[in-house]
Each structure stands twice: as C-alpha cells, then as structure tokens.
Amino acid sequence: MRLRIVIIVAALAVASCSNLSGVVEITDSWAPTTPPRAQAAVIYLTIDNGTEVDDRLVSVSSDRCNTIELHATQIDEERIMRMRLAEPELLEIGSGESLEMVPGGLHVMCINPPTPFAAGEVLDLTVTFAQAGSIEVATPIENR
Length: 144
What we know:
10% helix, globular, Immunoglobulin-like
C-alpha cells in the first residue's frame, strides 16, 4: 500500500511539472525582404508543440505566394549547399518539442511572389498540422 501511494505521489509530481501548454504555437515567424522581381522568398517559423500528442507540419499557405514549398537545406556530396523538398519526417514535432526553421536549415519557400516583400509589411499565413489543424499567423517582414 505504501509503495502504491509513493508511486501515485511521484506521478502527480511529474504531471504538475509538465511544460505542456495544451496547444501548438507559432512563437516566432518572420520573412526577410526581397528585391524587386524576386522569383522566391523565404519564411521562417518556430513551432512549439505543447500538446500531449506528436504532430506534423503539413502545409503553409498565403495569398502572397503563388506556390509554397517546405524545404530543407542540405550539403551534397560535392559540398554544395542545395535546397530540397523537406521529407515528412523532418516536419514531425514530438509532444513537448519544437521545430525551428532558420536560415541554412528548414524553411518555407514562397515561389514567384506577385509582389516583393517589403520591410514593415505583415504576411498572413495559414499553417496546417496533421493533428492541431490550421493556425493563422501574422508574420512580419523584416531583416534580422
């Protein structure tokens, strides 16, 4: 009986120390400016999975992009840095984990934006997850 009480108390203590917020959050999103007639623009996000279930980033959309792809930057066998479509396993976010999109790593590629991204503008994104559904994100355009 005493062991059962100790186990229950320990389980409650661990549960109360959980960092889970219960939601998937975009904690940092931004896009750098682009030159006139740019054929592509990049968007970066940090995604925190505060839920108790694993999730996966499925897509990103915006009316400011004709096409959006999720890319990973990789160095090939010739030591040349190349962008490739991100494999689905790179877009998985475990419970309590984060997915950080940064320059030189994972990123959102906006292909053929109809207008350049200018500093001070806000880009409206819809970020869709397998479990959490869609989240609307106001993304500032700024140079960091």
